[in-house]
Amino acid sequence: MKAVITVIGKDRVGIIAAISAILAESNVNILDISQTIMQEYFTMIMLVDISKSNISFNELAEKLESKGKELALSVRIQHEDIFNSMHRI
Amino acid sequence: MKIFLTPCIGYRQGGAVMINSLEIIETIKMIQEENLDIRTITMGISLRDCCHSDINIACTKIYDKITRLAANLVKVGDEIEREYGIPIIHKRVAVTPISIIAESCDSANYVKFAETMEKAADTIGINFIGGFSALVHKGFTKGDRILINSIPEALSTTKKVCSSVCVATTKSGINMDAVREMGYIIKKASELTADEGGIACTKLVVFANAPDDNPFMAGAFHGIGEPECVINVGISGPGTVKSALEKVRGQDLGVVAETIKKTAFKITRVGQLVAREASRRLNVSFGIVDLSLAPTPAIGDSVAHILEEMGLEKCGTHGTIAALALLNDAVKKGGTMASSYVGGLSGAFIPVSEDSGMVEAVRCGALSIEKLEAMTSVCSVGLDMIIVPGDTSPETISAVIADEMAIGVVNSKTTAVRIIPAPGKKEGDMVEFGSLLGGGPVMGLNKYSSKDFINRGGRIPAPIQSLKN
Questions:
Q1: Are residues B185 and B305 in the same domain?
Q2: Cβ <8 Å between B82 and A36
Q3: Facing residue for B4 by CB, picked from A31, A39, A78
Q4: Other Cβ atoms within 10 Å of A72 Cβ, number
């Protein structure tokens, strides 16, 4: 199963490091990353493969969200199908 | 938090461009800022194997069946919400019209069935359960009469049970005896909950052409042609439509229709995805997606504001019907292509007390009951969540119902009346029902009597347009 992680918030040192550390710990493979900074706001979108993850989706989501709170960022993880079904016929 | 749109490179996978960042951000913005949500996952459950001559045994069978089939409904709904990141506001259950099930028992009062439904709803953790209903569009059976007479007590002693009575269809005409009866039932239900503004009436719908697969409360029930158990999903998103229209300000109405259509398509695709997932995980067949714009009292979740965005100073002014007709039609056109099975009510809802824009329009005098009646001939429902003075006579309420039924029957569409005579309140007073149901001003009705017309009773024959065979 693939999921999309989005990270939005004020730019600071170590955002990608913090998020990818959690993913590595959880055996989640990063397939693609794109990021940009606009008016100091950092926007990162990651496509990940969670089929070999060693924790449940819920635990992973909680870990990412609490890391987001710690760094004052909004971090979301969503199944990629929501985007596919909305934007592709 | 505001999201800034930033063009990025699309994801490439196996050579094909998958999703691009703009689209990802658009989806997240629709959910976070524009209140896009799945309004309800409603499980329809047939209770036809729960009939018994002993009311206690029948109720035990009903409780056991609902709690068995819907045991995981809330859990699965929460899981899908988590994994797809889309709020699923309600998980609900609709059952076979209770009059059909209860009829086999010897009891002369069906309140116990409502209490059983409430208990089952508590056990599985849902906030509404529908189907304390009767279908009497052509006439009453013994069970229909007992059920209708039990409605006021049933709705005033329970909190989660919803009731509906179908009194008219295009095929059979209008059962005016039932219309007359419902005027009294609504008054009585209101009086029994006088200390809460007549809240029992917010859970009672009178229908023409009631759909068998509507997932939205208070009118949901599991129709008689439906399977054993089914998942129907109701989607919403007035805020998303409004915000899409903000981007085409000043452009012609063809562009407006096209914009609504595209937005409805996207919203419905999410509904279709959730419906499919829910039915797979619950191992229950998928019924329909109901693509309705269902407002909530939350700011930014109003159908009235969509109409105003189209260029009306206030919802209810001249031009409102045209704008609503455009909206309703474009929502359906966008939605039908997005889902394999569309059903239920599908269109725009105009429940006054649940829509902050409608409340404001009534308060400032822009929106009257007559205009609302006219609006119901071009949108998906009827006079919904209308608060009227507490001293309104039962015959006047019946006459309001009769008008609305006529609109539905002649136009071959669903119409409904959910009207609340608020005890002790006069035109212009405010009534509050609480978060989900909202609240609003008491609306004035025509002062002249319809009593002799209503007291004639009988059945208005099916219109000529029903003779299609």
A1: no
A2: no
A3: A39
A4: 9
